[in-house]
Design brief:
3 domains; 5-stranded mixed sheet; Neutral Protease, domain 2; Immunoglobulin-like; 10 helices; Peptidase_M1_aminopeptidases; Zincin-like; 8-stranded mixed sheet; alpha+beta
Amino acid sequence: MSITRPGSDPYLPGHGDASYSVRRYALDLAYKVETNRLDGTATLSCQVHEDTGALHLDLYGLQVSSVKLDGKPVKHSHHGGDLTLKSSFTAGQEATIEVRYGGKPRPVRSRLHGPTGWEELEDGVIVAAQPHGAPSWFPCNDRPDDKAVYEISLAANPAYHVAVSGELEGKRRKGNATTWSYRQDVPMPTYLATVQIGRYTEVPHRGASVPVRSLVPAGVGAKELAPGFARQPEMLELFTRLYGPYPFPSYTAVITEDELEIPLESQALSTFGRNHLAEDWEAERLIAHELSHQWFGNAVTLERWQDIWLHEGFACYSEWLWAEETGRSTVEEETRRHHAALAELPEDLLVADPGPELMFDDRLYKRGALALHALRRRVGDETFFSLIRSWLAQNLGGSVTTEMFEEHAARESGEDLTDLFAAWLHDEELPDLTDQPVSREPTHRGLRSLFPRS
């Protein structure tokens, strides 16, 4: 990948350019599954933030045939994953960049995070781009804090279903290809953009406030989707009651024919392997986990990768809330169980700044969830869920930091929470649950009484 750029996220120093932002991506793509050939034209509507002699785009493993700036050819270079446009740019300037490119896409690889991005399956494609895989299929400003709207069209063999992280505008067949057109009108960071291609059948799920669907491979029916995927409408409605309105027009779960080690969310879409059809709690909790990311991670997104706990801690806590909703367990029981497990592990992780090596460590997920429960115990159930809903509502479509959450929680609760956040987020030592002070007795009346079904 490219060398470190000024202003780039220190967790991913070879990605992104802080000197400009992209407001809109328009991607016109054609893909041949049989040969893994992708050809595309990407049009980026940008705004420049500072005077500079070059803008950097991220594009990995594909060949650039032409680059235009405001409709005219522009001098450029493309080495590794760094596509550099060389011109005189001024602060406040609006610029339209058009890149024509093609080749055989492959995942972006790194020592710390492994391969991410465009990946061939046995019969189709999966794109799981977190944290740095977006440049494997389109030129972009690969920063989590640079959110844009998208228009994506992709032409492929008519035998395949194409799913994209957006709303389907339509599809049309011409010759031996069908073009699928999608829009994403809610600002989205590059790593949450996805394309999924496979021989899928759409299965709608009833009972939710927005359309919920699963895309399934051949031979998968309603029986195989139970209990986990069939309960997605219930999960969505629970999270809506707790967190506020679902932030997108619909939700899609793609279940690939292949097995996947872990599922992954994209905006308004999550991807699972056939192994996640298992009728067990492990699969069900992951389905709830990925769905909750639509609030925590997608609607409201970290500004810096060091704040990943703001996604994963909330998603893990959502698993425990779902367990309590279904009567499998209680949040208190889950808290004690996971705290005991963490106490047996090394205490060398700072939740608020884990470092790139540990940003996806499971200890961060669990300790982030424990921090939220400590906050809930301190301020009480009603205040806790109220401040979570206002956190999401006030930052919808935006980017956030740990400091912003700490300030919001203190302001909304009217309490000084410095000691609580210091212990759970900024110290390596795992706090003892019983040592956490409680300024008022939480209600613990249960989710059903606090937030009854409408």
